[in-house]
Amino acid sequence: MYAAGRVARMTPLLVAQIVLTLFVFVMLLNSAAVMVYVERKVAAMLQQRLGPYLVGPKGLLQPIADVLKLMFKEELRPKAADAFLFALAPILSATCAFAAFAVVPFGAETTFFGLLSEPIKLQVADVNVAILVVFAIASMSVYGIVLAGWSSNSKYSLLGGLRSSAQMISYELSYGLALASVLVMANSLSVTDIVNSQSGTWLGVLPRWFVFIQPVGFLIYMISGIAETNRAPFDFPEAEQELVAGYHTEYSSMSFAMFFLAEYINMVTVSAVATDLFLGGWHGPFLPASLGWIWFLLKVAAILFFYVWMRWTVPRYRYDQLMRFGWKVLLPIAVVNLLVTAAAVLYFNL
Amino acid sequence: MNETVLFYVFGTMAVVASLLVIGQRNPIYSVLLLIASFGALSGLYVLLEAPFVAVIQIIVYAGAIMVLFLFVVMLLNAPHEETEHDERVHPLMQRGPMRFGALLAMALMVELVWALTSGRETGPFGAAAVSSVAALGRSLFGPYAFPFEVTSVLILVAMLGAVVLARRETPDE
Amino acid sequence: MSDVTLDHYLVLSAVLFAIGAAGVFVRRNVITILLSIEIMLNAVNLTFVAFGRALGTGDGQIIVFFVMTVAAAEAAVGLAIVIGLFRHRESLNPDSFTQLKW
Fold it and tell me: Of A146, A343, B46, C10, which is the most exposed, with the fewest CB atoms less than 10 Å away?
Protein backbone atom coordinates (compact mmCIF):
# COMPACT_ATOMS: atom_id res chain seq x y z
CA MET A 1 0.00 0.00 0.00
CA TYR A 2 2.86 2.33 0.72
CA ALA A 3 4.50 1.84 -2.66
CA ALA A 4 2.30 4.44 -4.18
CA GLY A 5 4.54 4.88 -7.18
CA ARG A 6 3.04 1.83 -8.80
CA VAL A 7 0.81 2.81 -11.66
CA ALA A 8 -2.46 0.91 -11.78
CA ARG A 9 -2.73 -1.04 -14.98
CA MET A 10 -5.35 -3.66 -15.64
CA THR A 11 -3.08 -6.52 -14.83
CA PRO A 12 -4.62 -9.89 -14.11
CA LEU A 13 -3.71 -9.36 -10.47
CA LEU A 14 -5.76 -6.18 -10.29
CA VAL A 15 -8.67 -7.83 -12.04
CA ALA A 16 -8.45 -10.71 -9.58
CA GLN A 17 -8.55 -8.26 -6.67
CA ILE A 18 -11.61 -6.50 -8.02
CA VAL A 19 -13.37 -9.79 -8.67
CA LEU A 20 -12.50 -10.91 -5.16
CA THR A 21 -13.99 -7.76 -3.65
CA LEU A 22 -17.20 -8.14 -5.60
CA PHE A 23 -17.32 -11.80 -4.71
CA VAL A 24 -17.04 -11.07 -1.00
CA PHE A 25 -19.76 -8.44 -1.25
CA VAL A 26 -22.16 -10.75 -3.07
CA MET A 27 -21.39 -13.63 -0.74
CA LEU A 28 -22.18 -11.48 2.29
CA LEU A 29 -25.55 -10.58 0.81
CA ASN A 30 -26.20 -14.24 0.10
CA SER A 31 -25.17 -15.19 3.60
CA ALA A 32 -27.79 -12.84 5.02
CA ALA A 33 -30.45 -14.49 2.87
CA VAL A 34 -29.28 -17.96 3.89
CA MET A 35 -29.30 -16.92 7.55
CA VAL A 36 -32.91 -15.81 7.28
CA TYR A 37 -33.86 -19.29 6.14
CA VAL A 38 -31.59 -21.09 8.58
CA GLU A 39 -32.91 -19.08 11.49
CA ARG A 40 -36.52 -19.90 10.74
CA LYS A 41 -35.89 -23.56 10.01
CA VAL A 42 -33.72 -24.11 13.09
CA ALA A 43 -36.20 -22.23 15.25
CA ALA A 44 -38.91 -24.48 13.90
CA MET A 45 -36.92 -27.62 14.62
CA LEU A 46 -36.19 -26.46 18.16
CA GLN A 47 -39.85 -25.71 18.70
CA GLN A 48 -40.96 -28.96 17.08
CA ARG A 49 -42.83 -27.47 14.20
CA LEU A 50 -42.26 -27.29 10.49
CA GLY A 51 -41.07 -23.79 9.64
CA PRO A 52 -41.21 -22.55 6.06
CA TYR A 53 -42.09 -25.39 3.71
CA LEU A 54 -44.41 -23.93 1.08
CA VAL A 55 -42.13 -21.82 -1.07
CA GLY A 56 -39.84 -24.07 -3.06
CA PRO A 57 -38.65 -27.51 -1.99
CA LYS A 58 -38.41 -27.63 1.80
CA GLY A 59 -39.03 -23.89 1.83
CA LEU A 60 -35.62 -23.11 0.37
CA LEU A 61 -36.91 -20.19 -1.69
CA GLN A 62 -38.42 -18.51 1.37
CA PRO A 63 -35.71 -15.81 1.59
CA ILE A 64 -36.45 -14.77 -1.99
CA ALA A 65 -40.11 -14.43 -1.10
CA ASP A 66 -39.17 -12.37 1.96
CA VAL A 67 -36.96 -10.04 -0.03
CA LEU A 68 -39.62 -9.52 -2.67
CA LYS A 69 -42.18 -8.77 0.00
CA LEU A 70 -39.89 -6.24 1.65
CA MET A 71 -39.16 -4.56 -1.65
CA PHE A 72 -42.78 -4.04 -2.50
CA LYS A 73 -43.85 -2.66 0.87
CA GLU A 74 -44.60 1.00 1.15
CA GLU A 75 -41.76 3.15 2.45
CA LEU A 76 -43.11 5.11 5.41
CA ARG A 77 -41.58 8.00 7.21
CA PRO A 78 -43.05 9.74 10.26
CA LYS A 79 -43.82 13.35 9.47
CA ALA A 80 -41.92 14.77 12.39
CA ALA A 81 -38.85 12.65 11.69
CA ASP A 82 -35.64 14.30 10.64
CA ALA A 83 -35.54 13.23 7.00
CA PHE A 84 -31.81 13.29 6.44
CA LEU A 85 -30.91 11.36 9.59
CA PHE A 86 -33.83 8.98 9.08
CA ALA A 87 -32.43 8.05 5.68
CA LEU A 88 -28.81 8.02 6.83
CA ALA A 89 -29.16 5.62 9.75
CA PRO A 90 -29.81 2.35 7.86
CA ILE A 91 -27.10 3.27 5.35
CA LEU A 92 -24.59 3.71 8.19
CA SER A 93 -25.56 0.40 9.75
CA ALA A 94 -25.30 -1.56 6.53
CA THR A 95 -22.05 0.13 5.44
CA CYS A 96 -20.27 -0.60 8.70
CA ALA A 97 -21.47 -4.19 8.59
CA PHE A 98 -20.01 -4.75 5.13
CA ALA A 99 -16.84 -2.79 5.81
CA ALA A 100 -15.89 -4.86 8.82
CA PHE A 101 -15.57 -7.95 6.68
CA ALA A 102 -13.03 -6.29 4.40
CA VAL A 103 -10.09 -7.21 6.63
CA VAL A 104 -11.17 -10.75 7.42
CA PRO A 105 -9.26 -13.39 5.48
CA PHE A 106 -11.14 -16.51 4.54
CA GLY A 107 -8.55 -18.70 2.92
CA ALA A 108 -4.88 -19.24 2.35
CA GLU A 109 -2.98 -17.54 -0.45
CA THR A 110 -4.03 -19.03 -3.70
CA THR A 111 -3.25 -18.70 -7.35
CA PHE A 112 -6.62 -20.05 -8.41
CA PHE A 113 -5.12 -23.24 -9.79
CA GLY A 114 -2.32 -21.54 -11.69
CA LEU A 115 -4.36 -18.80 -13.40
CA LEU A 116 -2.42 -16.05 -11.69
CA SER A 117 1.32 -15.53 -11.80
CA GLU A 118 1.59 -14.87 -8.06
CA PRO A 119 -0.69 -15.83 -5.23
CA ILE A 120 -3.15 -13.34 -3.83
CA LYS A 121 -4.52 -13.43 -0.36
CA LEU A 122 -8.16 -14.29 0.03
CA GLN A 123 -8.81 -11.07 1.84
CA VAL A 124 -10.10 -7.78 0.52
CA ALA A 125 -7.56 -5.63 2.30
CA ASP A 126 -4.53 -6.90 4.13
CA VAL A 127 -3.74 -4.27 6.68
CA ASN A 128 -1.15 -4.88 9.32
CA VAL A 129 -3.43 -3.54 12.05
CA ALA A 130 -6.40 -5.62 10.95
CA ILE A 131 -7.75 -6.52 14.38
CA LEU A 132 -7.93 -2.89 15.37
CA VAL A 133 -9.77 -2.07 12.15
CA VAL A 134 -12.44 -4.63 13.00
CA PHE A 135 -12.78 -3.07 16.40
CA ALA A 136 -12.92 0.44 14.95
CA ILE A 137 -15.71 -0.38 12.53
CA ALA A 138 -17.60 -2.17 15.30
CA SER A 139 -17.51 1.03 17.31
CA MET A 140 -18.77 3.01 14.31
CA SER A 141 -21.81 0.79 13.95
CA VAL A 142 -23.24 2.29 17.13
CA TYR A 143 -24.12 5.40 15.14
CA GLY A 144 -26.60 3.72 12.84
CA ILE A 145 -28.62 2.58 15.82
CA VAL A 146 -28.51 5.72 17.86
CA LEU A 147 -29.39 7.90 14.88
CA ALA A 148 -32.26 5.58 13.96
CA GLY A 149 -33.63 5.88 17.45
CA TRP A 150 -33.29 9.66 17.54
CA SER A 151 -34.52 10.55 14.10
CA SER A 152 -37.71 8.53 14.34
CA ASN A 153 -38.96 11.04 16.88
CA SER A 154 -40.91 8.46 18.86
CA LYS A 155 -40.57 7.34 22.46
CA TYR A 156 -40.06 3.64 21.79
CA SER A 157 -37.46 4.26 19.16
CA LEU A 158 -35.49 6.72 21.23
CA LEU A 159 -35.44 4.50 24.29
CA GLY A 160 -34.57 1.46 22.22
CA GLY A 161 -31.85 3.32 20.39
CA LEU A 162 -30.20 4.71 23.51
CA ARG A 163 -30.37 1.41 25.36
CA SER A 164 -29.08 -0.52 22.41
CA SER A 165 -26.13 1.77 21.86
CA ALA A 166 -25.31 1.90 25.58
CA GLN A 167 -25.25 -1.88 25.55
CA MET A 168 -23.00 -1.96 22.51
CA ILE A 169 -20.44 0.43 23.88
CA SER A 170 -20.40 -1.39 27.22
CA TYR A 171 -19.64 -4.74 25.67
CA GLU A 172 -17.06 -3.26 23.31
CA LEU A 173 -14.66 -3.12 26.23
CA SER A 174 -14.73 -6.86 26.91
CA TYR A 175 -14.63 -7.45 23.15
CA GLY A 176 -11.46 -5.41 22.87
CA LEU A 177 -9.84 -7.11 25.86
CA ALA A 178 -10.59 -10.56 24.43
CA LEU A 179 -8.98 -9.43 21.17
CA ALA A 180 -6.02 -8.11 23.14
CA SER A 181 -5.40 -11.46 24.80
CA VAL A 182 -5.26 -13.14 21.38
CA LEU A 183 -2.86 -10.42 20.33
CA VAL A 184 -0.58 -11.14 23.23
CA MET A 185 -0.50 -14.81 22.27
CA ALA A 186 0.11 -14.32 18.59
CA ASN A 187 2.42 -11.30 18.75
CA SER A 188 0.90 -9.64 15.72
CA LEU A 189 -2.05 -7.42 14.84
CA SER A 190 -2.56 -8.88 11.39
CA VAL A 191 -5.30 -11.50 11.22
CA THR A 192 -3.44 -13.48 8.56
CA ASP A 193 -0.44 -13.81 10.86
CA ILE A 194 -2.66 -14.92 13.71
CA VAL A 195 -4.26 -17.64 11.62
CA ASN A 196 -0.90 -18.83 10.37
CA SER A 197 0.40 -19.15 13.92
CA GLN A 198 -2.37 -21.66 14.53
CA SER A 199 -1.27 -24.14 11.89
CA GLY A 200 0.07 -27.52 12.82
CA THR A 201 -0.91 -29.83 15.64
CA TRP A 202 0.27 -30.90 19.05
CA LEU A 203 1.18 -34.54 19.30
CA GLY A 204 -0.14 -35.02 15.82
CA VAL A 205 -3.71 -35.02 17.07
CA LEU A 206 -4.86 -31.76 18.65
CA PRO A 207 -4.77 -28.75 16.32
CA ARG A 208 -2.97 -25.72 17.59
CA TRP A 209 -6.03 -23.56 17.82
CA PHE A 210 -6.09 -20.74 20.30
CA VAL A 211 -9.38 -21.89 21.74
CA PHE A 212 -7.56 -24.70 23.51
CA ILE A 213 -5.07 -22.36 25.16
CA GLN A 214 -7.54 -19.53 25.71
CA PRO A 215 -10.94 -21.01 26.46
CA VAL A 216 -11.92 -18.11 28.69
CA GLY A 217 -10.93 -15.64 26.00
CA PHE A 218 -13.05 -17.45 23.47
CA LEU A 219 -16.06 -17.42 25.79
CA ILE A 220 -15.64 -13.73 26.51
CA TYR A 221 -15.31 -12.99 22.82
CA MET A 222 -18.43 -14.94 21.90
CA ILE A 223 -20.52 -13.38 24.67
CA SER A 224 -19.36 -9.89 23.80
CA GLY A 225 -19.94 -10.62 20.13
CA ILE A 226 -23.50 -11.69 20.79
CA ALA A 227 -24.08 -8.57 22.85
CA GLU A 228 -22.48 -6.36 20.19
CA THR A 229 -24.74 -7.67 17.48
CA ASN A 230 -27.81 -7.23 19.69
CA ARG A 231 -28.77 -10.88 19.48
CA ALA A 232 -30.46 -12.99 22.11
CA PRO A 233 -30.10 -13.29 24.99
CA PHE A 234 -28.95 -9.68 24.82
CA ASP A 235 -31.62 -8.35 22.50
CA PHE A 236 -33.76 -6.56 25.05
CA PRO A 237 -33.66 -3.24 23.19
CA GLU A 238 -35.23 -4.73 20.10
CA ALA A 239 -37.36 -7.48 21.53
CA GLU A 240 -40.87 -7.55 20.22
CA GLN A 241 -42.49 -8.02 23.55
CA GLU A 242 -40.72 -5.16 25.22
CA LEU A 243 -40.31 -2.07 23.14
CA VAL A 244 -42.42 -2.82 20.09
CA ALA A 245 -39.32 -3.15 17.95
CA GLY A 246 -36.92 -0.73 19.55
CA TYR A 247 -34.91 1.52 17.33
CA HIS A 248 -36.33 0.26 14.05
CA THR A 249 -39.99 0.62 15.00
CA GLU A 250 -40.70 3.34 12.50
CA TYR A 251 -38.83 1.80 9.60
CA SER A 252 -40.46 -0.25 6.87
CA SER A 253 -39.60 -1.84 3.55
CA MET A 254 -36.04 -1.48 2.36
CA SER A 255 -34.77 0.59 5.28
CA PHE A 256 -35.90 -2.12 7.64
CA ALA A 257 -34.31 -4.65 5.33
CA MET A 258 -31.02 -2.75 5.63
CA PHE A 259 -31.08 -3.00 9.43
CA PHE A 260 -31.94 -6.66 9.19
CA LEU A 261 -29.13 -7.16 6.70
CA ALA A 262 -26.71 -5.27 8.92
CA GLU A 263 -27.56 -7.45 11.89
CA TYR A 264 -27.03 -10.71 10.02
CA ILE A 265 -23.82 -9.54 8.38
CA ASN A 266 -22.50 -8.41 11.77
CA MET A 267 -23.23 -11.91 13.02
CA VAL A 268 -21.31 -13.38 10.11
CA THR A 269 -18.39 -11.02 10.72
CA VAL A 270 -18.23 -11.86 14.43
CA SER A 271 -18.29 -15.57 13.58
CA ALA A 272 -15.64 -15.14 10.89
CA VAL A 273 -13.33 -13.21 13.21
CA ALA A 274 -13.88 -15.80 15.95
CA THR A 275 -12.98 -18.54 13.49
CA ASP A 276 -9.84 -16.74 12.41
CA LEU A 277 -8.69 -15.82 15.89
CA PHE A 278 -9.65 -18.85 17.94
CA LEU A 279 -10.55 -21.77 15.72
CA GLY A 280 -7.62 -21.81 13.37
CA GLY A 281 -9.19 -20.12 10.37
CA TRP A 282 -8.76 -22.20 7.29
CA HIS A 283 -6.41 -24.83 8.72
CA GLY A 284 -7.79 -28.34 8.99
CA PRO A 285 -6.94 -31.94 8.33
CA PHE A 286 -7.36 -33.87 5.09
CA LEU A 287 -7.55 -30.87 2.78
CA PRO A 288 -4.71 -29.11 0.97
CA ALA A 289 -4.07 -25.49 1.88
CA SER A 290 -5.66 -24.13 -1.26
CA LEU A 291 -9.02 -25.65 -0.28
CA GLY A 292 -8.82 -24.31 3.24
CA TRP A 293 -11.79 -22.06 2.69
CA ILE A 294 -14.01 -25.11 2.97
CA TRP A 295 -12.89 -25.59 6.56
CA PHE A 296 -13.41 -21.89 7.15
CA LEU A 297 -16.98 -22.13 5.90
CA LEU A 298 -17.69 -25.15 8.06
CA LYS A 299 -16.39 -23.47 11.18
CA VAL A 300 -18.29 -20.25 10.52
CA ALA A 301 -21.44 -22.27 9.88
CA ALA A 302 -20.98 -24.05 13.19
CA ILE A 303 -20.71 -20.76 15.09
CA LEU A 304 -23.72 -19.31 13.27
CA PHE A 305 -25.74 -22.38 14.17
CA PHE A 306 -24.69 -21.82 17.77
CA TYR A 307 -25.91 -18.21 17.51
CA VAL A 308 -29.35 -19.28 16.28
CA TRP A 309 -29.54 -22.04 18.85
CA MET A 310 -28.82 -19.54 21.63
CA ARG A 311 -31.57 -17.26 20.47
CA TRP A 312 -34.30 -19.83 20.65
CA THR A 313 -33.14 -21.62 23.77
CA VAL A 314 -32.02 -19.09 26.34
CA PRO A 315 -34.36 -16.56 27.96
CA ARG A 316 -33.65 -12.91 27.49
CA TYR A 317 -31.71 -10.75 29.93
CA ARG A 318 -33.49 -7.70 31.33
CA TYR A 319 -31.73 -4.48 30.50
CA ASP A 320 -30.30 -3.74 33.93
CA GLN A 321 -29.19 -7.35 34.35
CA LEU A 322 -27.53 -7.13 30.97
CA MET A 323 -25.61 -3.96 31.85
CA ARG A 324 -24.64 -5.27 35.25
CA PHE A 325 -23.34 -8.46 33.68
CA GLY A 326 -21.30 -6.52 31.14
CA TRP A 327 -19.64 -4.17 33.58
CA LYS A 328 -19.39 -6.14 36.81
CA VAL A 329 -18.82 -9.66 35.59
CA LEU A 330 -17.51 -9.81 32.05
CA LEU A 331 -15.13 -6.86 32.18
CA PRO A 332 -13.22 -8.00 35.31
CA ILE A 333 -12.97 -11.52 33.90
CA ALA A 334 -11.63 -10.13 30.62
CA VAL A 335 -9.03 -8.02 32.43
CA VAL A 336 -7.88 -10.95 34.56
CA ASN A 337 -7.74 -13.13 31.46
CA LEU A 338 -5.49 -10.63 29.75
CA LEU A 339 -3.18 -10.41 32.76
CA VAL A 340 -2.94 -14.17 33.10
CA THR A 341 -2.29 -14.55 29.38
CA ALA A 342 0.46 -11.95 29.43
CA ALA A 343 2.05 -13.52 32.50
CA ALA A 344 1.90 -16.99 30.98
CA VAL A 345 3.43 -15.81 27.71
CA LEU A 346 6.30 -14.19 29.60
CA TYR A 347 6.82 -17.12 31.92
CA PHE A 348 6.65 -19.90 29.39
CA ASN A 349 8.35 -17.86 26.64
CA LEU A 350 5.57 -18.86 24.29
CA MET B 1 1.15 10.95 -7.38
CA ASN B 2 -1.62 8.99 -5.75
CA GLU B 3 -0.51 10.27 -2.39
CA THR B 4 -0.74 13.90 -3.50
CA VAL B 5 -4.26 13.43 -4.76
CA LEU B 6 -5.27 11.61 -1.60
CA PHE B 7 -3.73 14.33 0.55
CA TYR B 8 -5.74 17.02 -1.19
CA VAL B 9 -8.93 14.97 -1.07
CA PHE B 10 -8.64 14.22 2.64
CA GLY B 11 -7.42 17.72 3.42
CA THR B 12 -10.35 19.35 1.64
CA MET B 13 -12.77 16.97 3.32
CA ALA B 14 -11.37 17.82 6.75
CA VAL B 15 -11.45 21.58 6.17
CA VAL B 16 -14.93 21.62 4.64
CA ALA B 17 -16.34 19.38 7.36
CA SER B 18 -14.80 21.55 10.09
CA LEU B 19 -16.20 24.70 8.51
CA LEU B 20 -19.62 23.13 8.43
CA VAL B 21 -19.24 21.99 12.04
CA ILE B 22 -18.91 25.55 13.27
CA GLY B 23 -21.64 26.74 10.94
CA GLN B 24 -24.53 24.44 11.81
CA ARG B 25 -27.45 25.50 13.95
CA ASN B 26 -28.42 21.95 14.91
CA PRO B 27 -25.82 20.42 17.25
CA ILE B 28 -26.51 16.90 16.01
CA TYR B 29 -25.42 17.81 12.49
CA SER B 30 -22.31 19.39 13.99
CA VAL B 31 -21.42 16.15 15.74
CA LEU B 32 -21.94 14.07 12.61
CA LEU B 33 -19.88 16.44 10.48
CA LEU B 34 -17.11 16.33 13.05
CA ILE B 35 -17.10 12.55 12.74
CA ALA B 36 -16.66 12.98 9.00
CA SER B 37 -13.76 15.35 9.68
CA PHE B 38 -12.17 12.78 11.97
CA GLY B 39 -12.50 10.20 9.24
CA ALA B 40 -10.61 12.47 6.86
CA LEU B 41 -7.91 13.04 9.47
CA SER B 42 -7.62 9.31 9.93
CA GLY B 43 -6.94 9.00 6.20
CA LEU B 44 -4.24 11.65 6.54
CA TYR B 45 -2.61 9.69 9.32
CA VAL B 46 -2.50 6.64 7.08
CA LEU B 47 -0.77 8.78 4.43
CA LEU B 48 1.74 9.80 7.10
CA GLU B 49 2.46 6.09 7.66
CA ALA B 50 0.98 6.05 11.14
CA PRO B 51 -1.65 3.28 10.84
CA PHE B 52 -1.91 2.78 14.57
CA VAL B 53 -2.80 6.42 15.20
CA ALA B 54 -5.28 6.30 12.32
CA VAL B 55 -7.18 3.38 13.79
CA ILE B 56 -6.98 4.77 17.32
CA GLN B 57 -8.42 8.03 16.01
CA ILE B 58 -11.49 6.15 14.78
CA ILE B 59 -11.82 4.02 17.89
CA VAL B 60 -11.31 6.76 20.48
CA TYR B 61 -12.43 9.98 18.83
CA ALA B 62 -15.04 8.98 16.29
CA GLY B 63 -16.24 5.90 18.12
CA ALA B 64 -16.26 6.95 21.76
CA ILE B 65 -15.92 10.68 22.38
CA MET B 66 -18.41 11.58 19.67
CA VAL B 67 -20.86 8.99 20.95
CA LEU B 68 -20.61 10.75 24.30
CA PHE B 69 -21.34 14.10 22.65
CA LEU B 70 -24.26 12.60 20.76
CA PHE B 71 -25.75 11.11 23.90
CA VAL B 72 -25.50 14.41 25.75
CA VAL B 73 -27.05 16.34 22.88
CA MET B 74 -29.91 13.87 22.65
CA LEU B 75 -30.53 13.65 26.37
CA LEU B 76 -30.54 17.40 26.81
CA ASN B 77 -32.74 17.72 23.75
CA ALA B 78 -30.44 20.59 22.97
CA PRO B 79 -32.38 23.48 21.60
CA HIS B 80 -31.20 25.43 18.65
CA GLU B 81 -28.93 28.25 19.57
CA GLU B 82 -30.69 31.34 20.84
CA THR B 83 -28.86 34.42 19.86
CA GLU B 84 -29.70 37.64 21.54
CA HIS B 85 -29.80 39.57 18.30
CA ASP B 86 -31.95 37.97 15.68
CA GLU B 87 -33.31 34.46 15.19
CA ARG B 88 -33.20 34.61 11.41
CA VAL B 89 -29.56 35.56 11.13
CA HIS B 90 -27.12 32.68 10.86
CA PRO B 91 -25.07 32.10 14.03
CA LEU B 92 -21.83 32.93 12.26
CA MET B 93 -23.04 36.24 10.90
CA GLN B 94 -24.04 37.99 14.08
CA ARG B 95 -23.14 41.59 14.64
CA GLY B 96 -20.85 42.93 17.23
CA PRO B 97 -18.38 40.87 19.25
CA MET B 98 -18.85 37.80 17.07
CA ARG B 99 -17.68 39.42 13.89
CA PHE B 100 -14.65 40.62 15.80
CA GLY B 101 -14.08 37.05 16.95
CA ALA B 102 -14.21 35.78 13.38
CA LEU B 103 -11.69 38.42 12.30
CA LEU B 104 -9.45 37.41 15.15
CA ALA B 105 -9.58 33.78 14.02
CA MET B 106 -8.64 34.74 10.49
CA ALA B 107 -5.76 36.81 11.78
CA LEU B 108 -4.63 33.78 13.79
CA MET B 109 -4.70 31.63 10.68
CA VAL B 110 -2.64 34.08 8.64
CA GLU B 111 -0.13 34.35 11.47
CA LEU B 112 0.18 30.61 11.89
CA VAL B 113 0.60 29.93 8.19
CA TRP B 114 3.25 32.63 7.92
CA ALA B 115 5.12 31.37 10.99
CA LEU B 116 5.07 27.74 9.95
CA THR B 117 6.24 28.31 6.39
CA SER B 118 8.88 30.93 7.06
CA GLY B 119 11.52 28.36 7.93
CA ARG B 120 13.58 26.80 5.20
CA GLU B 121 11.90 24.86 2.42
CA THR B 122 11.31 21.31 3.55
CA GLY B 123 11.69 18.51 1.08
CA PRO B 124 9.53 15.44 0.76
CA PHE B 125 9.51 13.06 3.67
CA GLY B 126 12.49 10.83 4.22
CA ALA B 127 12.23 7.10 4.06
CA ALA B 128 12.44 6.38 7.77
CA ALA B 129 9.07 6.03 9.41
CA VAL B 130 8.08 4.31 12.61
CA SER B 131 4.87 2.57 11.72
CA SER B 132 5.07 -0.67 13.61
CA VAL B 133 2.91 -0.99 16.67
CA ALA B 134 5.54 -3.05 18.43
CA ALA B 135 7.99 -0.14 18.36
CA LEU B 136 5.35 2.22 19.74
CA GLY B 137 4.51 -0.29 22.45
CA ARG B 138 8.13 -0.53 23.49
CA SER B 139 8.28 3.28 23.69
CA LEU B 140 5.17 3.41 25.81
CA PHE B 141 6.41 0.85 28.27
CA GLY B 142 9.98 2.09 28.17
CA PRO B 143 10.87 5.78 28.16
CA TYR B 144 7.26 6.93 28.36
CA ALA B 145 6.09 4.55 31.04
CA PHE B 146 5.55 7.23 33.68
CA PRO B 147 3.23 9.44 31.57
CA PHE B 148 1.40 6.29 30.53
CA GLU B 149 0.60 5.38 34.12
CA VAL B 150 -0.28 8.97 34.95
CA THR B 151 -2.83 9.08 32.12
CA SER B 152 -4.55 6.07 33.57
CA VAL B 153 -4.92 7.93 36.88
CA LEU B 154 -6.13 10.94 34.89
CA ILE B 155 -8.85 8.91 33.21
CA LEU B 156 -9.92 7.50 36.56
CA VAL B 157 -10.20 10.98 38.03
CA ALA B 158 -12.12 12.22 34.99
CA MET B 159 -14.53 9.30 35.23
CA LEU B 160 -15.21 9.99 38.91
CA GLY B 161 -15.55 13.70 38.25
CA ALA B 162 -18.01 13.21 35.42
CA VAL B 163 -20.16 10.88 37.49
CA VAL B 164 -20.22 13.27 40.44
CA LEU B 165 -20.87 16.37 38.36
CA ALA B 166 -23.70 14.88 36.36
CA ARG B 167 -25.46 13.31 39.28
CA ARG B 168 -28.90 14.59 40.10
CA GLU B 169 -29.17 16.17 43.52
CA THR B 170 -31.46 14.02 45.64
CA PRO B 171 -34.02 15.91 47.74
CA ASP B 172 -32.44 15.10 51.07
CA GLU B 173 -29.10 16.77 50.28
CA MET C 1 7.19 9.86 -5.00
CA SER C 2 4.63 12.37 -3.92
CA ASP C 3 5.34 16.05 -3.63
CA VAL C 4 3.50 16.56 -0.39
CA THR C 5 5.96 18.07 2.03
CA LEU C 6 5.86 18.82 5.71
CA ASP C 7 4.76 22.37 4.87
CA HIS C 8 1.55 21.10 3.35
CA TYR C 9 0.60 19.30 6.54
CA LEU C 10 1.55 22.27 8.70
CA VAL C 11 -0.56 24.66 6.67
CA LEU C 12 -3.50 22.25 6.82
CA SER C 13 -3.29 21.95 10.57
CA ALA C 14 -2.95 25.75 10.92
CA VAL C 15 -6.14 26.17 8.92
CA LEU C 16 -7.95 23.58 11.03
CA PHE C 17 -6.73 25.20 14.23
CA ALA C 18 -7.99 28.59 13.09
CA ILE C 19 -11.37 27.11 12.19
CA GLY C 20 -11.62 25.62 15.65
CA ALA C 21 -10.63 28.92 17.21
CA ALA C 22 -13.27 30.72 15.14
CA GLY C 23 -15.85 28.29 16.45
CA VAL C 24 -14.85 28.98 20.03
CA PHE C 25 -14.93 32.76 19.53
CA VAL C 26 -18.11 33.07 17.55
CA ARG C 27 -20.59 30.38 18.52
CA ARG C 28 -22.97 30.84 21.45
CA ASN C 29 -23.71 27.20 22.22
CA VAL C 30 -21.51 25.40 24.73
CA ILE C 31 -21.69 22.09 22.90
CA THR C 32 -20.51 23.63 19.66
CA ILE C 33 -17.74 25.35 21.60
CA LEU C 34 -16.62 21.99 22.98
CA LEU C 35 -16.69 20.54 19.46
CA SER C 36 -14.52 23.40 18.22
CA ILE C 37 -12.04 22.64 20.98
CA GLU C 38 -11.90 19.07 19.67
CA ILE C 39 -11.15 20.42 16.19
CA MET C 40 -8.23 22.39 17.62
CA LEU C 41 -6.89 19.33 19.44
CA ASN C 42 -7.06 17.34 16.24
CA ALA C 43 -5.17 19.98 14.34
CA VAL C 44 -2.43 19.75 16.95
CA ASN C 45 -2.42 15.94 16.63
CA LEU C 46 -1.88 16.28 12.91
CA THR C 47 1.08 18.58 13.51
CA PHE C 48 2.66 16.12 15.91
CA VAL C 49 2.28 13.16 13.60
CA ALA C 50 3.59 15.14 10.63
CA PHE C 51 6.69 16.21 12.54
CA GLY C 52 7.20 12.70 13.85
CA ARG C 53 7.18 11.45 10.29
CA ALA C 54 9.51 14.15 9.11
CA LEU C 55 12.04 13.51 11.87
CA GLY C 56 11.72 9.74 11.59
CA THR C 57 10.79 9.08 15.23
CA GLY C 58 7.78 7.48 16.83
CA ASP C 59 7.59 10.22 19.47
CA GLY C 60 4.98 12.15 17.49
CA GLN C 61 2.60 9.22 17.62
CA ILE C 62 3.23 8.65 21.32
CA ILE C 63 2.36 12.23 22.14
CA VAL C 64 -0.79 11.96 20.01
CA PHE C 65 -1.74 8.95 22.13
CA PHE C 66 -1.51 11.11 25.26
CA VAL C 67 -3.31 14.06 23.67
CA MET C 68 -6.21 11.79 22.73
CA THR C 69 -6.45 10.47 26.25
CA VAL C 70 -6.50 13.97 27.70
CA ALA C 71 -9.08 15.05 25.12
CA ALA C 72 -11.33 12.16 26.10
CA ALA C 73 -11.05 13.02 29.78
CA GLU C 74 -11.70 16.69 29.09
CA ALA C 75 -14.71 15.95 26.91
CA ALA C 76 -16.22 13.77 29.61
CA VAL C 77 -15.79 16.33 32.37
CA GLY C 78 -16.82 19.23 30.12
CA LEU C 79 -20.02 17.51 29.11
CA ALA C 80 -20.80 16.66 32.72
CA ILE C 81 -20.45 20.36 33.55
CA VAL C 82 -22.72 21.21 30.61
CA ILE C 83 -25.35 18.82 31.92
CA GLY C 84 -25.16 20.39 35.36
CA LEU C 85 -25.44 23.89 33.91
CA PHE C 86 -28.33 22.94 31.67
CA ARG C 87 -30.24 21.44 34.55
CA HIS C 88 -29.93 24.66 36.43
CA ARG C 89 -30.57 27.28 33.81
CA GLU C 90 -32.30 25.39 30.95
CA SER C 91 -30.05 27.10 28.47
CA LEU C 92 -26.93 26.21 26.50
CA ASN C 93 -25.99 29.78 25.75
CA PRO C 94 -22.83 30.74 27.62
CA ASP C 95 -24.04 34.33 27.82
CA SER C 96 -26.70 33.27 30.31
CA PHE C 97 -24.01 32.20 32.76
CA THR C 98 -22.29 35.54 33.08
CA GLN C 99 -23.40 36.08 36.66
CA LEU C 100 -21.28 34.28 39.19
CA LYS C 101 -24.34 33.82 41.34
CA TRP C 102 -25.66 30.25 40.96
Answer: A343
Q: Collect all residues of chain C within an 8 Å Cβ-Cβ radius of residue B50.
A: 49, 52-53, 60-61, 64
Average pLDDT over residues B160-166: 91
In a domain, C64, yes or no: yes
pLDDT tens for each residue of B86-97: 555 566 666 666
- Nearest CB to B63; choose among A140, A147, A150: A140
Q: Which subunits have 3 or more CB–CB pairs within 8 Å of chain B?
A: A, C
Q: How many domains does chain C have?
A: 1
**Which residue range(s) make up the domain with C26?**
6-97
Domain ranges in chain B?
Answer: 1-81, 132-173
- CATH code at B1-81: 1.20.120.1200
- Per the CB < 8 Å rule, is C4 touching B47? yes
In a domain, C102, yes or no: no
Domain range summary for chain A, segments of one domain joined by +: 73-103+127-348
Dump pLDDT digits (tens) for A158-168.
Answer: 877 888 888 99
The enclosing domain of C40 has a CATH number of: 1.10.287.3510
Query: Is this complex scored with an ipTM above 0.85?
Result: yes
Residue to substitute from C30, C36, C55, C65, interface B, most B β-carbons within 10 A:
C65
CA neighbor of C64 nearest in space, from C83, C51, C81, C77: C51
